[in-house]
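pinging the channel bc i need a second pair of eyes. not urgent but kinda urgent?? the chain im working w is below, pasted from the shared doc
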Amino acid sequence: MAVVVFGSLNVDLVTQTPRLPVAGETIRGDNFFTGLGGKGANQAVAAARLGASTRAIGCVGGDRFGEQLLKGLWDSGVDASGVRVDESTHSGVAVVSVDLAGENAIVIVPGANGRVDESDVDRLKAFLADATVLLLQLEVPTPIVEAAARVARDAGVTVILDPAPASEFSESLYEYVDILTPNEIEASQLLGASVDDPETALQAASAFRRRGVDRAIVTLGARGVAYATAEDAAFVPAFAVEAVDTTAAGDAFNGALAAAIDRGLPWLDTLRWAMTAGALSVTKVGAQPSMPDLAAVEEALQGVEDVD
């Protein structure tokens, strides 16, 4: 049993500011630091910290950032042997601004992530032999994402697609996806309709099922998640936390979702795991440093059960 994550690796250049600037405005920041990120790497670290045997496939550049990204994965318990080094380009970079409310604005320069290609899909096949879950995002070329999803579906592996950042992709991708996990902004962009509350999130989840996915989850941040399956559809409220940095909340959610499925947890327990990991991640600054471990998630879940 294993979780395989096929996707991006970035170094994050993070500024903390009182508020996010508007177009054309220059403001003074309070702090700056670098961190390890990329949606693929973040989600791999999230799954590994929750006890899943986790393997990453992607591409970094032949630079110091690439070395740091690979070391970060290995140090977090992720098998990074599937990450290729492309000496002809630089590693991916994300420039992140975070305000006092924990909201963020992000600019991504793909670098080596844009070089992920069919050769990486070919290497993926060997990693799927004992995998239960393949976790995908959209920070590498979308035709390659679809090729990876198709290979995993053919191997009988559960395919989770986090369609972030929202971008155009072939409608045929939906048929290879078992679980789709957009947030409200991504759901709105993909469907061309406003998704901003539990009711419209439930409608969106059902709309994604009609496009071919088996299960759809639409996340609404601090409010909770809406889901639709063949059996039912419902909204699950989140529990309150004090947000410090929301940058990687979706990655914590998706990594935990994959880890819970790998464990064979029932559907609602799987959602609770993912929601708890996402909530805990926003209480810390940074992407990979904010991914909670198994003890933290279990303690938080116990606390919620005690309140109930």
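so The chain has a mean pLDDT of 93. and The two ends are 33 Å apart (CA to CA). — does that match what u expected or am i reading it wrong
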